[in-house]
Structure formats: structure tokens, C-alpha cells
Amino acid sequence: MPHHFATFFRSYCAILAVCFLFMCCANMAHAIDAGMPNPPSSPTEVKLGIFLADIVDMDELEETFQAELIVIAEWKDPRLAFDAQAEGSDYKLFQGEFQFNELFAGWWPQLLIVNEIGSGDINALRITVRADGTVRYKDQRNVALETPMELQSFPFDVQTLHATIISFGDYSDQVSLVVDENVLGATEEYAEVNQSVNIAQWDLLNLDLKAGVSDFRYYGTKKEFSKVSMTITLERKSSNMLWKIIFPLILLVSLMWAVFWIDIENLADRLNVAFIGILTIVAYQFLIDGNMPRISYFTFTDAVLLFSFVVMCLCIYESLLVNSLWTHGKRAMAERIDRGAHWAFPVVYFVGLTFNYFYFQQVS
Fold first, then answer.
1. DSSP annotation string for 41-80
2. Alpha helix ranges (H) inside 138-266
3. How far apart are CA 250 and CA 245, in angstroms?
4. 49, β-bridge pairs
5. Residue of 54, 23, 27, 29 whose CA lies nearest to 232
6. pLDDT of residue 47
7. DSSP 8-state code for residue 348
């Protein structure tokens, strides 16, 4: 009897083990089928919209910006169609990462922002499947993006920030991305009524989405893939920098011209005023250095600082020249030059500022 019981027990355990192994293999096969379907058609058209909820930060030194985006995509997959009457609802809803990863068994485009830094944070995710197979995907993500910036006309610059979105792993003959104009218009309306979209010191001028194709070797093979390019145009609010940096600088330079009203023979007094002005400019430059973008090329503000320094140095040379003429008996010539300097220096200075402004507007 014990021998028969042991044989029966071993057989029972073997049957349970086989059943358990079969169930695991079935689940694994089901997981692979659900997780790796092909696009429903060739190509599958995916309507893509980007809603700009907020611009969190900008770093001119690193040429990066952080934004809060809502990504909305829509496509049709007849394989997911169902009988609304039998299901008791005309749509199926999957919310959150758990339901999306574990329950949703359809294909979806993996929307990747090419110039994103790091992995980013997806804070909310939602997929809706209609009875006819129409799938609508939404997620809210915080991203840090790298984009070139042109700061030559700082602080009167306008920046165009770029982001390129692709369906990762899919070529243009598999997935075609098109722009959802309804979502783009919603962002423009939202920005008009909600000032939180605008980052400090910047105004949002425009947001645009354009569909296109690229053929660089992103996947290793040179073949076209579909993309959507997003451009965000921002204009810097220059009034703060204008009143804190540019206007005080012009005031300091204009005070320097007081040397032209000091008698020509009083060279010591003229030089004292001039050198005090130059030292003030140098100290002022160290003071405002923290408000300047730390970049390798020249900006409008850099040009204004350098030009102001040169003009103030020229005041010293003018004083030395007219004093030398005075001491050598050429008093009439010295007085003519000094009277001309009364007007020449302000005119040259403001013409130079105007030229710098338009020049840097052109090169930016």
C-alpha cells in the first residue's frame, strides 16, 4: 500500500509540473504576441500633436531647455475593432503604465524625441480604443532638450528652439507621421490666456509643427523615416537688461565727456576724470558679468562694453593732444579740436551703438 501511494504521488506531482510548464509557455507566447505586433498597414498614418503646457527653464550656456509637453497620437488598427454592443461600451480605456504595459495588446508607435537629454519623466498615460479600431494615445512628459541658440544680438535676441519626433524603429514605409492641426491650435489659444507658458524674461511668439522625412543613418541603414519637427519661437524681454546694463553704461560714458568742459591747460584734472571713468567701467563690467551669457562668441552687449571702453580711452588721447598743442603755442588749433570733440564724441558714440545694434540683428 505505501508503495502504491508513493507511485501515485509521484505521478500526480509530474502531472502538476507539466501543467505548470505548459501554462508558463502559453503565457510567454501570449506576451510575445501581444508585445511585438507589426503596424496594421504599410504605411500606418499616425496623426501627431504636441501640446506645450509650460516652458520650465532655459540654459543659454548649455544650450538646453526644459518643457512640459502633452503628446497626442491617433491611428487606426482594424485588428483592435470590437462589437460595442457585446462589450457594452463603444470604447476601451487603458490608463497608467500598469494597464498600458500589462493589458494593452495592440501596436503603438514609440514616439521618441531625438534631441532629448536623458530619459525624461512620463507623468500620465492614457490609451483609448474605439469600436472601429481607432486608437488615441496621450501622455504628459517633462523633457530636457538640447538645441542650438543664437545669442549674438543679446539682449534683443529671438530664439527658435527645436525638437524632432520620430516613431522609433519604424521607416517611412511602415509609419507616416502627420500633424494634428487641432492640437497645435489648442496650444496657441492656451498660451494667449495662460501666461505660465512664458518663462521669465521670455515671451512665446509661435509654436509650429511640420511633418517631413529624413534619411540619415539613425538606425544604421540609410533609409527614409518619417518625422515631425517642432519649433518654439521665444523673444527675450529686453527691458530688464536695457535698464540695468545698457542705460547705466551710456550714462557713465556721457559723464566722461565732462573733460571737454575743463580748461585745456588743466591736464591733471582732465586725466583724473578720465581715469576715474575708465576704472568705473572696468568695475562695472565685473559687476554685470553674472548677468551675461557665458559663451565663446561676441554679443551686442559685449560690443557695447568694448566700444564704450575705447571711446573713454580716446578721451584721454584727446586731452593729451590738445594740451600738447596748447603748450607748444598752437592754442587756436587746440581750441578748435576741443570744441569739435564736444560734438564729435557723442555723435560717434551713438552712431556706433546704432551700427552695432543693426549689425548684430543681421548676423543673429
1. SSSEEEEEEEEEEEEEEEETTTTEEEEEEEEEEEEE-GGG
2. 181-193, 239-241, 247-256
3. 9
4. 72
5. 54
6. 94
7. H
Query: Which residue, chain included where needed, has cell 543681421?
Result: 362
Determine how β-strand 91-95 pairs with β-strand 116-130: antiparallel
Judge whether 229 and 212 are in contact, CB under 8 Å: yes
Q: How many other CB atoms are there within 10 angstroms of residue 271's CB atom?
A: 17
For residue 355, the 8-state DSSP code is H
Domain 39-237 has CATH 3.90.580.10: no
Q: What residues contact residue 141 under an 8 Å CB cut-off, 6+ apart?
A: 68, 69, 71, 120, 121, 122, 123
In three-state secondary structure terms, 27 is helix
Cα three-residue angle 319-325-328, rounded to 5 degrees: 135
Alpha helices, H only, the chain = 2-35, 84-87, 96-102, 181-193, 239-241, 247-256, 267-288, 300-327, 331-363
Q: Which amino acid is at 66?
A: Q
Residue 337 phi/psi, 5-degree rounding, is -65, -40
In tens digits, the chain (364 residues) has pLDDT values of 444 545 544 554 555 554 444 444 444 333 333 444 778 888 899 999 988 888 888 888 788 999 999 999 999 999 899 898 888 889 899 988 878 777 788 898 999 999 999 877 888 899 999 999 999 999 999 999 999 888 888 889 899 999 999 998 888 889 999 998 877 666 666 666 665 566 778 888 888 889 999 876 665 667 888 999 999 888 888 888 888 888 988 998 998 888 888 888 888 988 998 888 888 888 888 877 766 777 778 889 889 989 999 999 999 999 999 999 998 889 899 999 999 998 999 999 999 999 999 999 888 6
Mention the CATH class of domain 240-363: mainly alpha
CA–CA dist 144, 59 (Å, integer): 10
**Residue 295: strand, helix, or coil:** coil
Q: Are 318 and 341 in contact (CB under 8 A)?
A: yes
User: Before 346, cis peptide (omega within 30)?
Assistant: no
Dist. CA 233–CA 286, nearest whole Å: 31
